[in-house]
Automatic annotation (TrEMBL), chain A:
Highest rank taxon of the organism: Bacteria
Keywords annotated in UniProt: 4Fe-4S, Iron, Iron-sulfur, Metal-binding
A molecular-function term among this protein's GO annotations: metal ion binding
InterPro entries: 4Fe4S_Fe-S-bd, 4Fe4S_Fe_S_CS, ET_IronSulfur_Cluster-Binding
Domain 4Fe-4S ferredoxin-type: 3-33, 39-74, 76-105
Keyword Iron carried by entry: yes
Protein name, UniProt field: Electron transfer flavoprotein
Keyword Iron: yes
TrEMBL record, chain B:
Keyword terms: 4Fe-4S, Iron, Iron-sulfur, Metal-binding
GO BP of this protein: respiratory electron transport chain
Entry keyword annotation includes Chaperone: no
Gene3D superfamilies listed in its UniProt record: 2.40.40.20, 3.40.50.740, ADC-like domains (2.20.25.90), Dimethylsulfoxide Reductase, domain 2 (3.40.228.10)
Positions of the 4Fe-4S Mo/W bis-MGD-type domain: 18-76
Name this protein carries in UniProt: Nitrite reductase
Ranges where the record places region Disordered: 354-375
Essential cofactor(s): Mo-bis(molybdopterin guanine dinucleotide)
Organism taxonomic ancestry: Bacteria, Bacillati, Bacillota, Bacilli, Bacillales
PROSITE patterns given in the database record: 4FE4S_MOW_BIS_MGD
Native source organism of the sequence: Sporosarcina globispora (Bacillus globisporus)
Length: 186, 722
């Protein structure tokens, strides 16, 4: 059954375990590929991860003059192919979320490939495996549909992808605010 | 066992030329399951893979756990024993030379014998820790009493779990840190969490905790800081550090006033209610608010939510325990569960977040100055006899009870204690009042330290012995729930390092006590003797064999025999462990912190952890990812307070108390009380916040008051900083 990365931003506790785990993925050369932000550091401890959303029509790949960014059959937008990447950094500018990172020494772009050596066989990516707060989860479409029902808000605040994000994405995102619609037990 | 909705069947990724060794994290009491990746050609640990099939944590790990494997083959590992001949260099990392085990053992045996001949048996001491297996903790207690024959043994749980232990013993007559398994937590209706920065200190509890809110339940958090968990809580009681007892009394008073008590439960299963009712009457919302700084409405609302909840769990951690009334705080919060009868059934109860990996097991089996294996008392002749029969000594040979960790350090300074064998602990960072502690360590005639890195405490030693990490030995650990689990060996010891149990057996032989130790040739030999020694004690591990642990995904103690599956839920029969089977509701008069703010020291200083570091930081500060994320300590200040002192974000300032001072970078955040400053305690030498903390000890647990003392801030000239 196909599973996707699903983000529930309300849950993030800023532990950056996702980043530590990213370095543990076989093909990642011990470099982490995503970001965790302090939303308002002088005020409170809110944090949130910024992960590659694996766009269905990815700006990074579109902008690449060398076709170095391939899209895997699972939908994962892969890291640049070493032999093709010319180091122009178009992709880092094109991505609306600033995801692709650049290695100056190797003159090479690198980005989240959704732990393709795991996810191609249905094993969750490292970040979603370890995330202690369930901010990052690896779910079937049915499970994501259930989440959508569970957190359905009258004010339409429950969000996956559209319209807040740039185009459809393989990763589904649930913005902060999910708890507002919950009916208390007592 | 206990596979719940978070459990998913997932196969692990197996890389070519690698095998996976199932084990648990080396650090905190969560003891998250993990697989260590071992290269089958080099036989070295090279990475980590989630352990999806561990029912408590289902593959999850915090950043400490993810990088824990990097400890084993780290460049800082001690590979050979070290000896320092020039005692004038004590307190520095200088002057050590490598030596053989022979030479190190000979020197230790000679010095230990000399000291004991001249000053008596009790001139030696053992200071140990609970970040190691039950087997090692057990043998350390035996080593002190049988091989050294000294009364002076104690351990770092006095800076960690001893108040929880004292409180539970008084309230329930038994000290198991959690009355229920963690797989119950997300199913309860209300979590009342006091003095626990759970998101940073026990991160892998968080997916269960958040789930309570997703189900429509409530989270109430008590903390002077708006921690990540407090930020999302339904109710945040932002009390002044050190005022928990007043708050707990105030809430119990409201529970009684609003009629949320369970009279039948109180009558049948508890003592002490009337007396407590009388005592807490005084703690009206207004009076409680005056003492704690928490708004009266919030106190009432907390009682209302907790009182109404069909099921609720009261949880706490070092925030309430590391006070000079830590034991009272524990019993006072436990009162909430006892007056409402929300205990002794699934999804309801009381739990403390165990700090160290084996904070639970390590305190039960005889490393504490007055305890013997199986939670037996050294002052109880019957208990002594039972243990003597396993050890093969006579009751007359059993030493008397000693004193607590900090008091041992005082005796070092007074030269009553002249020799120290330190293992699995780093008190030159973690003990309070460091200026005094470091002086006391310098005063020692002879000190041995066993560790796998040269810790700040090892810098005071004459001999340093290279120990193994958790991944190079096997044995059991008792996790946050009271579940006995198995740590497995993934790699042969690095260099000449040895497990502490082996070091103790070999040292005992040098000290002429081989007949009590030489039969212990493997970790499993120690385990078998250990289980036998606990048999019949109330922390009975006899039935918790390694096979059963493996088959059942851990065994909850007590587990008395082969057929006993263990005890995930405590008190299901409503029988408590006091002789009359009843729990005790405790009437506890309020006491303020030992040191209250004054004109000269107007701020309240509190200390704690960050998610990237563990305890004294001796391990985690060496791990590149963790170091990069938090390379140095800081002082957290509210912006209004900072502006009063004219201080800016990231400016270096001087923080000082009556006992010491240090320079820290300012971290401005609104997520802290205006009268409070916070500094994490994971750093050594001149960065250690414990230079400033107070050694006011709890009368029962002998826990120092790390969580509250009076401090002052001052701007520093730039040139002074460099
Ligand atoms: S691991 Fe999860 S909780 Fe931790 S920072 Fe990443 S997304 Fe946030
Ligand atoms: S989020 Fe950015 S990097 Fe990821 S696929 Fe979309 S455009 Fe590319
Ligand atoms: S430090 Fe604690 S929470 Fe983090 S991985 Fe280790 S056991 Fe789990």
């Amino acid at each position: 059954m196909k599973k996707r990365l699903y983000l529930e931003l309300e849950n993030c506790i800023g532990c950056r375990s996702c980043l530590a785990a990213c370095t543990q993925c076989g093909g990642h050369e011990e470099r982490n590929r995503n970001y965790v932000y302090d939303v308002n550091p002088l005020v409170n401890r809110q944090t949130m991860p910024l992960m590659c959303l694996h766009c269905e029509n990815p700006a990074c790949a579109r902008s690449c003059p060398a076709q170095a960014i391939q899209i895997h059959e699972t939908g994962a937008v892969l890291s640049a192919l070493v032999e093709k990447c010319i180091g122009c950094q178009n992709c880092t500018i094109a991505c609306p979320y600033g995801i692709p990172k650049f290695d100056q020494e190797q003159n090479l772009m690198y980005k989240c490939d959704l732990c393709i050596d795991r996810t191609k066989d249905g094993i969750p990516p490292m970040c979603a495996s370890v995330c202690p707060s369930n901010t990052l989860q690896w779910l079937t479409d049915e499970e994501i549909e259930n989440k959508k029902k569970q957190f359905n808000l009258d004010n339409g605040k429950w969000v996956t992808s559209m319209p807040y994000l740039e185009g459809e994405t393989n990763v589904k995102v649930n913005l902060p605010g999910i708890l507002q619609g919950i009916t208390k037990l007592f | 066992m206990q596979r719940d909705k978070f459990f998913k069947e997932i196969e692990n990724l197996n890389h070519p030329n690698e095998k996976l060794i199932k084990t648990h994290c080396s650090y905190c009491g969560m003891q998250c399951g993990m697989n260590l990746r071992v290269n089958t050609q080099t036989n070295k640990i090279i990475g980590v893979e989630p352990r999806y099939d561990w029912p408590v944590t289902v593959g999850k790990m915090c950043p400490k756990g993810v990088t824990a494997y990097q400890q084993t083959n780290h460049k800082d590992r001690l590979l050979k024993p070290l000896i320092r001949d020039d005692a004038s260099l004590k307190g520095t990392a200088e002057g050590f030379r490598e030596a053989s085990w022979e030479e190190a053992y000979d020197l230790i045996a000679k010095k230990f014998k000399e000291l004991q001949n001249e000053y008596g048996k009790d001139s030696l001491s053992v200071f140990s820790g609970v970040s190691m297996t039950n087997e090692k903790c057990y043998l350390t207690g035996k080593f002190a009493r049988v091989a050294l024959g000294t009364r002076y043994i104690d351990y770092n749980g006095r800076f960690c779990m001893s108040s929880a232990a004292g409180g539970f013993l008084r309230s329930f007559g038994v000290d198991r840190g959690s009355t229920l398994p963690w797989t119950d937590i997300h199913e309860t209706d209300c979590l009342f969490i006091a003095g626990s920065n759970t998101a940073e200190c026990h991160p892998t509890s968080m997916f269960r905790i958040w789930n309570v809110q997703e189900r429509g339940g409530y989270i109430i958090v008590v903390d002077p800081r708006e921690t990540p968990i407090a930020r999302r809580a339904d109710l945040h009681l932002d009390l002044k550090p050190g005022t928990d007892l007043a708050l707990a009394n105030g809430i119990v008073n409201q529970l009684i006033e609003m009629g949320y008590i369970d009279e039948e439960f109180i009558n049948k299963h508890t003592n002490g209610f009337e007396e407590t009712k009388e005592l807490v009457k005084e703690f009206t919302p207004d009076y409680t608010s005056m003492l704690t700084g928490v708004a009266p409405e919030k106190i009432i609302r907390a009682a209302e939510i907790y009182g109404k909840a069909p099921n609720a769990v009261v949880m706490f951690a070092r925030g309430v325990e590391q006070q000079h009334k830590g034991v009272d705080n524990v019993s006072a919060y436990t009162n909430m569960a006892l007056v409402t009868g929300k205990i002794g059934r699934p999804k309801a109860g009381v739990a403390t977040f165990t700090g160290q990996g084996n904070g639970q097991g390590g305190r039960e089996h005889g490393q504490k100055s007055d305890l013997l294996p199986g939670y037996r008392k050294i002052t109880n002749p019957k208990h002594v006899e039972e243990v003597c029969s396993v050890w093969g000594i006579t009751p007359e040979e059993m030493p008397q009870p000693g004193v607590s960790a900090y008091e041992m350090i005082e005796l070092m300074e007074q030269k009553t204690i002249r020799g120290l064998y330190l293992l699995c602990s780093n008190p030159a960072v973690s003990a309070p009042n460091q200026n005094f502690v470091r002086k006391a360590f310098k005063t020692l005639d002879f000190m041995v330290c066993s560790d796998f890195y040269l810790s700040e405490s090892a810098e005071f030693a004459d001999v340093v012995l290279p120990a193994v990490t958790w991944s190079e030995d096997e044995g059991t650990v008792t996790n946050i729930e009271g579940r006995i689990i198995k740590i497995n060996k993934a790699q042969e010891p690095v260099g000449e390092s040895k497990p502490d149990w082996q070091i103790q057996v070999e040292l005992a032989e040098r000290l002429g006590k081989g007949k009590y130790f030489s039969h212990l040739k493997t970790a499993r030999d120690v385990a078998d003797e250990f289980r036998l020694a606990t048999k019949g004690g109330y922390a009975d591990y006899y039935g918790a064999t390694w096979d059963k642990i493996d088959k059942q995904d851990g065994v909850f103690w007590p587990c008395k025999n082969e057929n006993d599956e263990g005890t995930p839920h405590m008190f299901l029969d409503k029988k408590f462990y006091h002789p009359d089977g009843k729990a005790k509701i405790c009437a506890l008069p309020y006491r303020p912190p030992a040191e209250e703010p004054c004109e000269k020291y107007p701020l309240r200083l509190t200390t704690g952890r960050v998610v990237y570091h563990y305890l004294s930081g001796n391990q985690t500060r060496r791990i590149p990812f963790l170091h990069d994320m938090c390379p140095e300590p800081f002082v957290e200040i509210h912006p209004e307070t900072a502006s009063k002192y004219n201080m800016e974000h990231e400016e270096k300032v001087r923080l000082f108390t009556r006992r010491g001072e240090a320079i820290y970078k300012v971290k401005i955040t609104e997520a802290i009380r205006k009268d409070t400053v916070f500094v994490p305690y994971h750093f050594g030498h001149e960065e250690s916040i414990n230079l400033l903390t107070i050694a006011a000890l709890d009368p029962i647990s002998r826990m120092p008051e790390f969580k509250a003392c009076a401090a002052q801030l001052e701007k520093v000239e730039l040139k002074k900083v460099q």
